[in-house]
Amino acid sequence: MWKKKDCEVVVAVIPSQMKGQNILIHHSELCSLRPHQWLMGEVMEGLLHAFSHTFSVTDNIYLLSHYTAGCILFGDRKNLPQQSLRKVNFTNYGAILSFVLVNSNHWNLLYIHAETGTVYLVDPAQKSSELKASQTAAKRIREYFVMRRTCCGKSEWVDVKWKGGVMAHPLQQDGCSCGVIVVKMAKAVIQAFPEIPEMTFSTSKKEMERERRDLALYILESSVFDEQNRCGICASSKPPGQGTAMIEWIQCDDCNRWFHCSCLSMASEDIEDAKYKRWECLLCQ
Ligand SMILES: [Zn+2]
Ligand SMILES: [Zn+2]
């Protein structure tokens, strides 16, 4: 997969913490785990959800989407009510785990530990004061819970006096592995819950390369994608927007994945053609 040209074929489907919701990982996203590449948020999100199943913490740690986490910490306050998560009851959980993009290019871990009322914003490269950044984050988290009470009458965690905290962690040694280290830190947090983890892993170039390969394999192994009955583009059995019309499918002669012809925008003469010769999908071409 590493050697193939990046494309939008779905290569893994990771079950989310919330039943019935899945995280789709496209080939181009998985390939951001290649050495020296900057990790894409969707892959990190998928890994966190896979960890939460592997280590059985889905009932203890709420996994907040990194988009919502970014809105809470850095977004415009007037857009915050759209992120109120009115269906979530945080008292069911002991912590919230997420990650955020800082300065549009650097991943940080966000860990909200309810029992001690502590917010950790962990910077793999420790570029600035982590305590100060965590304190600012704690302030935004406080405001977020107050907003939820005002907007949808949800009062859990509103009275917690959130404070900023720091945890010791290994440091990033290159310019591109912040995402990989954040994922490793998230895994350590999940495994140590409810304790604060002691993180001692190596961040050497060699270790980062090995970790990237292991994470890619872990995603593929954690996938629940039914490649025989789902389309490799839309990941559904029925193409989006199609009613009861007959659904045409095409199978790759190389990898055996199936695709809706409509999802590939195939012209009818190309479909007709493919019936009599070899056909290869975007991933295998
Ligand atoms: Zn499709
Ligand atoms: Zn193929």
Highlighted features:
single chain; 285 residues; alpha/beta; Adenoviral Proteinase, Chain; Herpes Virus-1; two-stranded antiparallel sheet; 7 helices; 9 strands; 15% strand; globular; binds zinc ion
Can you characterise this structure?
- The structure is a single chain.
- The chain is built from 7 helices and 9 strands; from the N terminus they run ββααβαβββαβααββα.
- It is α/β, with parallel strands linked by helices and 285 residues long.
- The strands form 3 sheets. The protein has a 5-stranded mixed β-sheet with strand order 3-4-5-6-7.
- β8 and β9 form a beta hairpin.
- The longest helix has 23 residues.
- One zinc ion binds next to loops.
Topology summary:
Layout: E1 10-15, E2 22-26, H1 27-30, H2 41-54, E3 61-63, H3 66-74, E4 95-102, E5 106-113, E6 118-122, H4 130-152, E7 163-165, H5 178-192, H6 205-222, E8 249-251, E9 258-260, H7 268-274
Parallel strand pairs: 3-4, 6-7
Antiparallel strand pairs: 1-2, 4-5, 5-6, 8-9
Helix pairs in contact: 2-5, 2-6
This protein binds zinc ion (ZN) (2 copies).
Tell me the domain tally: 2
The largest sheet, given as strand count, sense and whether it forms a barrel, is: 5 strands, mixed
CATH top level class name of the largest domain: Alpha Beta
- Under the CATH scheme, the architecture of the largest domain is 3-Layer(aba) Sandwich
Major β-sheet strand ordering = 3-4-5-6-7
**Protein structure class:** alpha/beta
CATH topology of the largest domain: Adenoviral Proteinase, Chain
Task: Report strand %.
Answer: 15-25%
On the 0 to 100 scale, the average pLDDT is 94
What's the quaternary structure here? single chain
Shape: globular
The helix/strand order is EEHHEHEEEHEHHEEH
CATH evolutionary superfamily of the largest domain: Adenoviral Proteinase, Chain A
End-to-end Cα distance: 12 Å
How helical, in percent, are the residues? 25-40%
Please tell me how large the radius of gyration is.
Answer: 21 Å
Instruction: Please work out how many helical segments DSSP would assign.
Output: 7
Low-confidence stretches: none
